[in-house]
Amino acid sequence: MKNSNSADRDKLPSGSLLLHKVKEAMNIPDPKRAARIQFLKEQIQKGTYKIDANKIARSMLKDLIKNSG
After folding, report:
1. C-alpha 12: how far from its chain's center?
2. pTM metric for this prediction
3. Helix runs in the chain, H state only
4. Residue 3: pLDDT over 70
């Protein structure tokens, strides 16, 4: 009889297969994200990129509260 750890391991893909699947998923292009990145790059180059300090502060506070609990 196999122990539970061995049985669990039999159900999981091998580490190299899992790593391959993760790499494949990371290489799937996201057109919306690519367009957003290009838009931001152009704004930065033109000097028209504006930082929303309030939005950044809210996000930082959310992360702080989430990670402090």
Report:
1. 23
2. 0.45
3. 4-11, 15-26, 31-46, 53-68
4. no
